[in-house]
Every structure is written in C-alpha cells, then in structure tokens.
Amino acid sequence: MKARHSLKKSCEGYPGGAAMDAQTPNAAGSSVPFRPAGAYCSLPTADDVETMPGVLDTTTAWHPAESTSYDGEQQPIDKSTGIEREEPSSAAWTSHTAERAIPEQLADLLMEIIPGMDGAKLGEAFLCAADLPPVTKQSLGELDIQNIITNIKLRHDVNFDKDLSFRPNLDGPKGQEKRRHSDNYWRALVAEMELYTLLFQRAPSIQNVGEAKWTALVQHAQRRIPKVFRTLHEVLESLVPDRDHARVTEHFDVGMLMQEIERGVCDLVKRVEWVAILLKEHCAPMRDGLVDKMVQTTKTGVAKNDTGHIVNGLKELLGILEAMKLDVANHQIRNLKTLLIEDTVNFEKHYHLDRLVRGRSKVNIDAAHEWWTLIDQDSRTHLSAAKDVSHHRLETFSRAVVDHLFAQDSRKDLPDTFYLDRDRLWVLKLEIDDLVHFEICFDMFGQCLREFAYNGPISNTARSELRNALSAIIGETTGHAPESWIFHSESLSLEIYRQAIILAGKPFVCDSSELGRASDHLQNIFRHYVTPYASKVQAAVLAQVMACASSYANASPIELFNNLVTPPLSTSPVLAPTSPASLLQPTTNTLSYFADRVVDLSYRISHIILIHWRIWGPIAYITDDSNSPTSQYPNDGVAAAMENSTLQRFPPIPHRQLRNKPLSISTTSSSTPSSPHPLHGISAPTPPPTLHTKPPPMSTEIEPDSSKRGNSDMAGSELGENSSETQHDSSEGKRTPDS
C-alpha cells in the first residue's frame, strides 16, 4: 500500500486521461525494415480468425510463438535486465488487489512482474499518461487550409517573414513539457503491451481470476492501443486521396485489430509494410528514408519480442504522418502567400471589426483611441499650416513607435492594438540595445586610440575584427539584455584595449591597473551613461524610419513585403563608406560602420508601422477617412465587415514606381571625445566621461595572448534579424502553426 501511495502522488502533475496538447517527437523522422515473410501468415478476416487452419497459434498478441514462456518451471526473464521476473501467485495477487480499483491493480501487476525502477515507471506511466497520442487529427487540424486562411496570427506574420513555415513547436519550457508528456505517453504504451501479453496468455498470476474479472481487466488495459490505431486511421485518411480511403479502413479496422491482438495473430509487420508503400506513393521523396527506418524498427521489435521497439515504430509512423501534414501545409502557404499578403489589410480590418462588434476582442479600443489622442495633441504644436495632415499623422505615429522601442520605462508602452506585433517589437528592442552597446564599445575604442596618440586610418577590416571579437564574447546571437553586457564588461574592455594597442603599433603590456581602469570605465558607461548613446542611435533610426515610411506610404502590402523584408544581412551590401578618404582619421561616429544594421532595423520598423496604421488607423485612431494616408484601403465600416468576413481575392494593384530615397548616415570626424556627435543635424546629449589611460611603457614587451586573439578571429554574430524557423511563429519573434 505504501508503494501505491507514492505512485499516486507522483501522478498528480500529469493530465491522466486527457488529450495532450503536444507536438510530434523528434523521432518523427525514423524508418524501419519489415519482418521475415515466413513469421506471419496473411491477415485473417474477423469471421475466419478463430477457425482458419493456417494461422499460427502465437502465444502473445505482438510476439512470435517461441519468444516467451510462462511455464510454471521457468520464470519469465526481464528483457532490460536479464533477471528472471518473479511471478506472484494467483491467490496472493487476487487477495492483495481485491479491494483496489482496476487501473491500480493493473499498475501493481506491472510493478510486481517487472523488477526495479522499470516496473515502477511503467506502472506510473500506465496510470498517469494521457490516453491520446501527442499527434492526433485534431492537433493537426490547424494545418488544414481552412484554418490557415483564418488564422489571424499566421495571416499577420506572413507579411514579415520570407521563410514562414510550420514546424513542431518543441522549443523552450513549453516544448520541454510537451516532450516530457510525449515520453510518458509512449512509456504507457509499452506498459499496455506488456499487460496484453500477461492477460491474453493467462499468466499464472491471473489464472484463477474469474471470467467477469478477467474481462474487466482487459477492458481497462485497452486504454491507448485502440486510440492509437484510430488516430493512425484518421490521419492517414486526411493525407491520401479518397480512392485510398477504403484500403486504409480495411487495414486499420480497430475492432478487428484488437481481436487479432487478443488471439495472437496480429501481423503488424505486414501492416507497416503496406503503410510504407502507401506513404511512398503520396509523400515527398525526402521522407522515403524515414519510412524505411520506421519499417525496420517495427520488424526488429517483432523479431526480438521487444515491445519498446514496437512502440518506437508506432511513434516514428505518427511522426512521419505529422511531417507529411506539415509538408502539405507549407506547400499551401507558399502557393497562397501572395494572395494572403495582398489581402492583409482587408482581412484584418474585417476580423477585428467583427470581434469588436461581438464583444470578443482582446483590444481595449477606448484605451487605444485615448493613447492616439494624447500623442496627436502633443504633436499638433509642431504642425505648420502648409503641412499635409495625413502625412503629419503618419509621422506622429512613427515617432511614437520609435520612442517606444528606445524607452526605458513603461510610460511609452503601446496600446493593445499591437498585440500581433509584440514579439517582433520585443526582438527589435533587444537588437537596438545591442546596437547602442556596440556604439559604446566602438567609442571607447576610439578613445583608446587617441590616448595612444594614433592618428592613422581605421580600416573596415580592423572594425570588423573588433566587431566579431566583441560578438564572440557577448554571444553568437542577437538581442542581449543590458545585464549581459555589464556581466561581460571586463572581457569586452580587455579586448577593446588589446586591439587598440595592436592598431596603434604599441607593445602590449599587461598592466593590471590600466586594464582594471578600462573595465571600470566601460562598466560605468553601461550602467549610467547609456542614454547619450541611445539618443544618438535613436536619431539615426528615426530619420531612416521617417524617410522609409514616407517613401512607401502608398505601396501595396505585397510591395512592402518585396521591398522591406530584407534578405539575411550577411548577403546585404555594407553601406559603410569604403573610399580611402573616409578612412583617413579615426572617428567616434561609429554608426557609419553599422549603417547596414540601422537600415535593416528601419525597414522592419517601418513595415510594422505602415501595416498597423492601415489596419487600425480607421478603426481605433482617426475618425475621418478623407485625410487618411491610405485612402486606397478605405474603412468599409462595421456593416461591410459583417457582410463579408471571409477571404476574398482582389485584382492585383499595379506596381508603383516608388521613390527609394537614399538612407545614408553622415560620417563626421571628431577630434575630441567631448564633442557632439553630428548626425542628420541632431547633436547627442553630453557624452559620458572620457577614458584616460597612460601610454604603455616601451619595456617588457609581451606578445598578445593567443587565446584572446583566438576570440578576435571568431566570426561574430550579425546584429540583424535571425531567420529562425517558425512554428508557426515567424522568424521575427519565434512557427511555432509550428508553423
């Protein structure tokens, strides 16, 4: 009773009996060869199963006849340990479990016949795991075309990601939880198969159990296997043409399958071989290897009488079916992408209006209108009489979004109308923080060079080496929290100091006091003087965003997608000056070297602004449409939204020749560290204190530390947008309809 109490406690965290919202395990790609042809006879029908003379009288539902014996003189051997399993006597087991619930009796039986932790884990999984597999027809339903075109998150994300696709969402804490529940489910399936062997062979421990009791035990033992077969049937039918449905039903008739298992005549190998042929007819050739591996796994399990391998074969089969469903969904997205993007504004306006009218919207429309009213009133003091009102509104809105990305407090938070862009905006905010901290590091690099009396050119190669070295120290990803920069300030300052000495042609002297002062100086700026540098970056980004938003104000959504969704930055041209004249003097205005990053950020911010303004401007912010900068996308009103809330195909809008204004950043030399940073005519606030270092003495030459040099040679991560897979999550935020 003690053991049972602890087992019940351990099950409290599992959703026993409920369907799990889990995705396919990684085994989704395995494959398997088939069982020897002579080991099994042809599949019997339900009528012939008891009388057919040629059927092998196998002693177990899943295994060959000779594999297991429960003779009274020979104890069964546990396959995982090689230790003989001790069978409890029938009388002892029945008396011990007479008053217990049947599922707990079955778990006790597993724990008693399988020694050690294996039996305990199987018993716990049998009681606690979900009854449905991680992949079901319902869980794959979001990949159906009807759900794709009505999925508001996907319809919005498709505008910002060239490689949007579905994939299993197994990342992060939620993904780990799904894996844990999935592993527990498949372990429970192994436990159920072991119970079938005991029950259908009438093991000694249950020989004296009455017929009614035995029937009840069998019914409670069959919790998951029938549902797995039913799931395979349903998912297969959803993937193959109608002409194959009859064959799928014939091979996955759940009632007949369970009868065959009970009588020990289920030819599982023949079934998976047939499934393999069917899958290869309809799946992509790249999946053939997975199909073969699935067959081989199943054949190995049946040949060795290993329930674990058999379950792995079923697991791999479900994974292949999920992969096929993902392939179909991703193909549909690629084919529909242009239509989905072009219809973005129309679809989202109707979607949000419909939910607002029905009282089901998650947007506080009054708060959004109040937010806009406040920023609009503040901006009207700067509105000249000759300035176009619609253009002024777009500029005001753009400035508010940029202010939010650079804000250090919550007073400039955006309203709920941005809920579909929260992840994208958060990624942009982190990348902007990175850019600001890189600007600080490069400014310190310039200060060190001046202290070492270096007045020569700073080549792009030297800047690139420093940038890569700093990236390697801080981490090969984008979007680090400010605390991460503070944590690595000592290593960053050492690398800056070392590379400045190398460029200045001075011998590297390991002066601990100088290195300590450099580290303290950099950490002090990170903690207390970020604002001047952030203001400098903000001025550059805001100017670019204003120019970009003005240029593309009347572009269609597909034109925005084609022009503003940039390829990976590693293939983009570097916009920094490369002429010899630009490299004659060191400069603290290092944003010119990060111009590609500034342009990339500006494009992505402008894209969000323009799409959002067209959708929500007429709904939440402005009350008149005549001055809207997007009059070609009129607000049809609530009535029109209610009349037509489904996807419509609109005739393509002719391509416009857009003015792509050059978005360059001016580079101005600065002779003193305290001078302002001229950028588009805007000066930054008073800069932080300057680092004063002693020129290193000419004695005691020390070669640069090779280990540190290795860091500087590492390819640093680019500061642009990572193109991660989507779940769907889009790559801006992070597919997982698994995308």
UniProtKB/TrEMBL annotation:
Please name the Pfam families in this protein's record: Tcp11
- Region labeled Disordered — which residues? 650-739
Q: Which InterPro entries match?
A: Tcp11
Q: Which GO terms describe its biological process?
A: protein kinase A signaling
Q: Where is the composition biased (Pro residues)?
A: 685-698
Q: Which residues cross the membrane?
A: none
Bias (Low complexity) = 662-674
Q: Where is the composition biased (Basic and acidic residues)?
A: 726-739
The Swiss-Prot or TrEMBL record describes its family as follows: Belongs to the TCP11 family.
Q: What PANTHER family would the database entry show?
A: LD23868P, TESTIS-SPECIFIC PROTEIN PBS13 T-COMPLEX 11
> Under which name does UniProt file this protein?
Tcp11-domain-containing protein
- Organism from which the protein derives: Periconia digitata
**What taxonomic lineage is listed for the species of origin?**
Eukaryota, Fungi, Dikarya, Ascomycota, Pezizomycotina
